[in-house]
Design goal:
- The two termini are 32 Å apart.
- The radius of gyration is 22 Å and the shape is globular.
- It is mainly α.
- Helix 16 runs antiparallel to helix 17.
- The chain has 2 domains: 39 residues; 347 residues, no CATH class.
- This is DUF401 family protein.
């Protein structure tokens, strides 16, 4: 009975999203559905909402999102990621690197328009060697690589917070590196190996110049990741430290910085995130999360497979953030001791599904840019995603073997 109620909550969320409403609307509707379907007392429901809004975890997450967006504005102002692409040209003179590493670097800017810049780079690198629909697939595929593991993406930060302390940001980033290598290799196997290496770029300066340019372009990102992964520094402190250092190194003046304070506050993102954290508390107060482990342990199907399928098809239908919000807490409650292996598997499933999801805006933009249908782009991406999912299940088994 509890599972049917939860399915009803999931249907409410999907219905709102399919009506092209913002995620914040879907989360608010789902919270109301939990209140009504689980017959929660009004006082309990209100207390859960307040608790979710004022918890330090919620405040910390909102602070991280603001600081990351602020840092993004600074990188855009100095053209850091574009300079990194120029450095790659000088270092490798490789069409394959241009078509893969450059979009992956640019993809660290979480903006829809980035896919258009990536499209121009991929066209220059692959014209005459790949068909139009294949170019579109390569563009979309590599532009989203950083979303798999990079510890500044909203979905990753929310998922880690919902893991109830079983997974840290640094631990997740390290655990995802093998899957990142697999992801890059799959693209090479299907498409990049058909492209000649030589890009015809004439390096007018020594290699040392381009290494320095690459380091100058990416030092902020490298510094942030090292602080988080190697030293266990909380994300908000790591990003703030990086911003302060970048102020000095980049010699930002007040006139340049002043617009960032307002533009870094993305109201839609902040409201959605706040509602997500409140919804998490409502689910916990309803007793859903604590009741599901016993249910899944009684099923003849392994719980990891059940959750993997839920995350994959749920992300295709409603987007990864929606399914993470609804199910990650339950999955972690049902996980064996540790939980990192299951967490990595589910994030891989959500990531893979988003490369096929019609609710993923970037896919539509990419398809339109190449003047092909969204269905054509998705069909070209399916084989790559299929191989990646198989690898993710294998990696899950390996992590479990070592006790994660």
């Amino acid at each position: 009975m509890e599972l049917l109620k939860l399915a009803g909550v999931f249907c409410v969320m999907i219905l709102v999203l399919w009506r092209k409403k913002p995620l914040s609307w879907a989360v608010a509707a789902a919270a109301l559905a939990v209140w009504l379907l689980f017959w929660m007392p009004a006082r309990t429901f209100a207390a859960a909402l307040v608790r979710g809004a004022v918890r330090w975890d919620t405040i910390q997450l909102l602070l991280v999102l603001y600081l990351i967006t602020f840092l993004q504005r600074m990188l855009e102002k100095r053209g850091c990621l574009t300079s990194a692409k120029d450095a790659l040209d000088g270092l490798f003179n490789s069409r394959r690197v241009d078509a893969s590493a450059a979009p992956a670097l640019l993809g660290m800017l979480p903006a829809v328009g980035t896919v258009l810049i990536c499209g121009d780079i991929v066209r220059q690198s692959t014209d005459g060697f790949l068909k139009t629909e294949e170019q579109a697939c390569v563009t979309s595929y590599y532009r989203h690589v950083s979303e798999l593991f990079f510890p500044t993406y909203t979905s990753i930060l929310i998922a880690v917070d919902l893991s109830a302390g079983k997974v840290s940001v640094g631990g997740f980033t390290l655990a995802m590196l093998p899957m990142l290598a697999v992801l890059m290799a799959i693209g090479w196997l299907f498409y990049l190996r058909r492209i000649p290496k030589d890009a015809g770029f004439f390096a007018g300066r020594p290699k040392a110049f381009y290494w320095k340019l690459l380091l100058r372009s990416l030092w902020t990102i490298i510094f942030t990741v090292i602080l988080i992964v190697a030293f266990g520094v909380p994300v908000h402190i790591a990003v703030l430290a990086c911003i302060v250092c970048n102020l000095l190194v980049g010699r930002f003046g007040w006139k340049e910085l002043r617009p960032f304070f307002a533009s870094a506050f993305e109201a839609r993102l902040m409201i959605s995130t706040l509602l997500i954290m409140m919804f998490k508390e409502v689910l916990a107060a309803a007793g859903v999360i604590s009741a599901l482990p016993a249910f899944f342990s009684s099923l003849p199907v392994p719980p990891f497979l059940v959750f993997a399928l839920i995350f994959f098809f749920g992300s295709v239908a409603a987007g990864s953030q929606a399914i993470i919000v609804l199910c990650m807490g339950m999955a972690m409650a049902a996980a064996a001791q540790g939980g990192l292996a299951l967490f990595v598997l589910l994030m891989c499933m959500a990531y893979a599904a988003m490369q096929l999801s019609p609710v993923h805006v970037c896919l539509a933009v990419c398809a339109e840019d190449y003047r092909i249908s969204l269905g054509t782009l998705i069909r070209k991406t399916v084989p790559l995603v299929g191989v990646f999912c198989l690898a993710a299940f294998g990696y899950y088994g390996l992590l479990r073997l070592f006790g994660f």
